[in-house]
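Our working data are protein records whose layout never changes between entries. Instead of coordinates, the fold is spelled out as a row of discrete tokens. Here is such a record, shown just as it appears in the course material:
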Amino acid sequence: MAEAEQRLLMLIDDEPAQSRLVSALAGREGWRTLVVGDSETAIATLGTRQGMQLSAIILDQWVPGERACELIAELKERRPALPILMLTTSTSPHLAVEAMRAGATDYLVKPVAPDRLMQALRNATTRETPRDELTPLAEKFDGDLDFDAMVGTATPFRDALAKAAKAARGHGHVLIEGESGTGKEMLVRAMHGASPRAKTEFRMLNIAGVPASSLESVLFGHEKGAFPGAFEQQTGAIQNCDGGTLVLDEIDRLSMDLQDRLAEVIETGQVKPLGAQYAFKVDIRIIAASNLPLADLVATGHFREQLLTALSRTSIELPPLRKRSEDVPALTRHFLGRIGEQPGLRPLGITDDALRLLSAFDWPGNVRQLQAVLFRAAVFCDGDALTTEDFPQLREIVGECEAPATPMRESAGVQLYCEDGNLRPLEDIEADVIRLAIGHYRGRMTEVARRLGIGRSTLYRKLSDLGIDNAA
């Protein structure tokens, strides 16, 4: 902590409320914050004694406006090694491209959750190894909202998609587990888009992003005068989503007493706001997401078994990217296609050597990190295709990758060959085809059977014989 206490952050911002918030968040981790209100003061500060002690800069794009990228470039020219994070209200990919080309380390779209802001700051100032190239961006482009956009043929991934596609058509609560960056949010949105509640209220709430002191009111609501400072009535997220879907991200961060209250709401179908004399009946679907296995937390006494049981009638586990490395080439091409459609960028290919390099890395940040690496490489690429030269830090970590003796061959998204070059067993290939079909047709089993040219009863028999009846 001694090193963190010496870190100084310069915040270029002219909004007092936001400046206080950012300063308070940074202070929790030992940062001192120097707030400046305009571009000229920021540039002048770099040459002062305090300026020489800076460890990072956060720039609110609103201050310099259209000259934000010019300011970033000037700051970077004077202090090349200083990380610069940009806060913006714009979701334009073009602005992100221009900011990064000017020298920004990362960009965040306001309103930004406290945990995302601090994670971006931590990533930018990690000094262990040069990893800017490998740091997941705090913001990502909006993804497609259906199962067709979920790219991958690895068996654990297809099992998860098949189960999600079937669950999407029901009304039961769902638990999705998986490491950060594995695609939980995208899967949630795909499920909602394919569900009977697709046109009803939909809200995503990150538990870690809400102050602990106000989380109970945010979830359950409160009556006027329920506690000091409750000057008016507030309807909670659960009641607001009556008839719709509430997504609770990082459910593992929910306190034990609120876990008890949430379990009671699920069991009774009623929610009682703080200070209320009566409860409201609600029809709500909860999709909970967790970066940690909740069963392990139950075993250690950090999560209520009652709530886990209520949420996990359907439980889905998204595998980390390192456990489906065969999907890296397809994901890479998919992301490059989407990146090439963004303003300020162009379509790019990628060499086989570069694909082997990407496949050899273990991707601790998972799919989100892969997308960020490709985005950064595309921003600065001058050629028509990405090569290993476009991933210098990755090359340093992984080393030179030799071509496998027998290349992997794929057909229609289903892997036909084993790593030793021999054909996979027909039973395994058939199971993959069925998983692929269930995901592609969003769990519509009649349509799956029709497209596969078999009867519905035959399909269910095959699911049982192949051992994927629970996954489908």
Summary: Residues 366-380 form the longest helix (15 residues). The CA atoms of residues 173 and 286 lie 5 Å apart.
